[in-house]
Amino acid sequence: MNTENDDLPERWNATLSGQPEVGRDLLRRYAEPHRRYHTADHLRHVLTMVDELAGGQDLFLVRLTETHVPGARDPEGELLCDADLAILAAPPDAYARYVEQVRAEYAAVPEQDFLAGRLAVLTELADREIFRTTVGRRLAPAARANLAAELESLTQRLGA
After folding, report:
1. pTM for this one?
2. At what angle do helices 7-15 and 20-30 cross, to 10 degrees?
3. Which helix (H) or strand (E) holds 25?
4. Any alpha helices (H) in 75-139, and if so which ranges?
5. All residues at 6 or more sequence positions from 32 whose CB lies less than 8 Å from its CB, including other chains
6. In this structure, are residues 143 and 91 in contact, taking their beta carbons and an 8 Å threshold?
7. Does the pLDDT value for residue 42 go beyond 70?
8. Reported confidence tier of residue 54, pLDDT bands at 50, 70, 90
9. How high is the pLDDT of residue 160?
10. What is the C-alpha separation between 38 and 30, in angstroms, rounded?
11. How many CA atoms lie within 13 A of 27 on its CB side?
């Protein structure tokens, strides 16, 4: 584990003390060689966004980011989903870097399959409210602009 990740075990222990082996395993998985976007830096960014959106309240609900659909009356889950999806509202250059990293992470997936899968995921996001918290909703216009541009690009690439 490099020194860049030193804050993550500390945050893990503050959140789930008594389970350091689970935190070490999580960080080991985030350091797997195929990872390009879902890395320790991504985890750190999500935790930073959680802090920003929650006013410093610390949460750790990583599995929820698979579906981005928290249960009813789950404000912590809503906050985590917004933090994880905040990258969608990034400035265009950062958003483009995110898209490149996601593609690199799924390099083993054939191009047409990746494009079709990405189109399906982004269409689902674009067809609903992206952000669930009041603060998160402020990110929606930038996220929708990024999604619209990428959806158009994906559609064109799939049609070519």
Report:
1. 0.65
2. 140
3. helix 20-30
4. 75-85, 92-105, 111-126, 134-137
5. none
6. no
7. yes
8. low
9. 63
10. 6
11. 20
